[in-house]
Every structure is written in C-alpha cells, then in structure tokens.
Amino acid sequence: MNRLLIKKQAKASLKGKWGRALGLCFVAALLISIIPSIFYGIGFGSSSTTQTAEGVKITAITPAGAIFMIIGVVVLVIIAPLFSYGTVKAFLKANRGEDFTVGNVFDGFKEKPGKTICTGILQFLVIWLCYFIPSFIAGIFLGTAANRMKLFWDYVWSNNHGRVEFFVKHVGPRLTLALMFFTLAIILGVIATFMYAMVYYVRVDNPDMSVVQILKTSRKIMHGRKLDFFVLGVSFIGWVCVCYITCGIGFLWLAPYMQACTAAFYDDAKDNII
Asked: How far is C-alpha 20 from the chain's CA centre?
C-alpha cells in the first residue's frame, strides 16, 4: 500500500470540494461539542456552594445537575456515531468521484440510526476493554507495590543494612509487573483502535450487515495493514504541529485532508475483503 498514492488520491478527491469538506468537518465537530456541552453547562450551573465554619467554600453538584450531566454523556454517545457516519459517507462519496454536500453530515440520523449507534457503542466498548483490563491489573500490582513501599520505609528507618535486597525482593517485582501491564494496555489499546478504525466505512457500504459482522469485517480489512495505517497517521505529525502553531486554525484544512486519506485507504484496503 503506497502512502504517497493514498495522499495523492485524497487530494484529487477534494479538488474543487475543499470548501464543502471543510464545512462538513466543522459542522460535525461543532455539533458534537456544543450539544452535549449544553447539558454539561446546565449541570454545572445547578451546583451549590456551601461554606464551612473555617470559611472554606465547597462546591457540589446537585442531584438535578448530575442528571443533566449524565444526559450530556448519553447525548454524546448517541450523536457522535451518527455524525461520524455522515462524515465518513461524504468522504467516501468524494473519493469515488461522487458529489456531496455539507448536509450529508446528518445522513446518520436518516439511515438506520439505531444500528449506527450500536456500532459506535460496541466499537468503543471493545477498545475500552483492551485498555481497561490490563490497566486494572496494573493498578492492582501498583497498589500492592505502594503497600510494600510503606513496609520498605519502615524497614529503612529500623535497619541500616539490607535495604536494596528488601526493595528488590518485595517492591521491585510488583512495580515491574505494573509497568508491564500498563505497557500492555497501551499496546492492546492501540492495536484495537486500528483494528476497528474502519467500522463506519463498513457500515456505510453494508447497510444490512449486522453490528458484530461490521466489526469483524473491519478487523479483516485491517489485518496486515495496521502498521500501514499507523505510518499514514504519523506522517501528519508535521502538519499537526503547524496547526498548533496557528492556534488550531490549520485543523480546518488538515481534518478534511486526513478524512479523505482515510477514505482512500479504506477503498484501497477493502478490495478482496468486501
């Protein structure tokens, strides 16, 4: 898979369409941010402040505020996959020489939205578990290591010898295991993220495919191509730095370009799979 050809194809697909592509990405990002934020804002606005006898002010979220914040999370879980679907569909159309509009960002709300939401939730859960399970085990070892560290310091204060041996025997192995599992969490999480990176593309191309089959198909497409996709993503680091220098304004152009590259990558990778 030629990374330069992918980028060339992406640029060609956006020729004469940069304005629409920019608008589509901007609208999707704006709505995904603003709509849940409304509920978060109401939740924080419902907080109450009390003052202790010592004059310390304590701010707490009221039950009503907590409900609004939970609603915000639920809304985000619902709308994020739907806007992602619409964005992906638009860039796939562009890559295939078809026309699209900014309004395509709302296609996810019209075309079996329930399945799209379930796809997004399952994708998130699988990736989250890959991060969480090793991290949880690492936390257990880290907790036991912290307990042993207390014993270690007690030992240091009461003994003038054998400190290294005590640390190596009682603390070191647990810290090592914690580090190993944290590293494993990162590795598994990144692999899972790349493995299921194409779920919305598969969802667009296969409207009747089950949610589980969508994830399996994404896994098949990315088999042997995860490193290529990683290298493609890394190749944008220079542009990301430029975007930060411009206080984020550059992302208005980089986001459509990266979306177009991912669409081109998918169309190239899916051959002989779907």
From this structure: 25
First to last CA, the chain: 17
3-state secondary structure of 59: strand
**Do the beta carbons of residue 177 and residue 81 sit within 8 Å?**
no
Total residues found in the chain within this entry: 274
For residue 46, the Cα-to-chain-centroid distance in whole angstroms is 29
Task: Please state the pTM of the whole predicted model.
Answer: 0.84
Report whether pLDDT(53) > 60: no
CA-wise closest residue to 83 among 120, 49, 54:
120
State the average pLDDT for the chain: 86
d(CA 1, CA 117): 31
48 vs 38: CA distance, rounded Å: 18
CA-wise closest residue to 32 among 87, 90, 114: 87
How many other β-carbons are positioned within 10 Å of the β-carbon of residue 160?
Answer: 7
Q: Of 21-30, 60-69, 211-220, where does mean pLDDT reach its minimum? A: 60-69
Do 39 and 72 form a contact (C-beta atoms < 8 A)?
yes
Report the distance separating Cα 34 and Cα 32, nearest Å.
6
In angstroms, the CA 274 to CA 253 distance is 31
Q: Transcribe 173-229 into DSSP letters.
A: HHHHHHHHHHHHHHHHHHHHHHHTTTHHHHHHH-TTS-HHHHHHHHHHHHTTTHHHH
18 burial (CB, 10 Å; 0-12 / 13-18 / 19+) is middle
- Decide if 202 contacts 214 (C-beta within 8 A): yes
User: Which residues, at least 6 apart from 202, have a Cβ–Cβ distance to it below 8 Å?
Assistant: 209, 214, 217, 218, 221, 270, 274
Region of 220 (left: φ > 0; alpha: ψ -120 to 50; beta: rest) is alpha
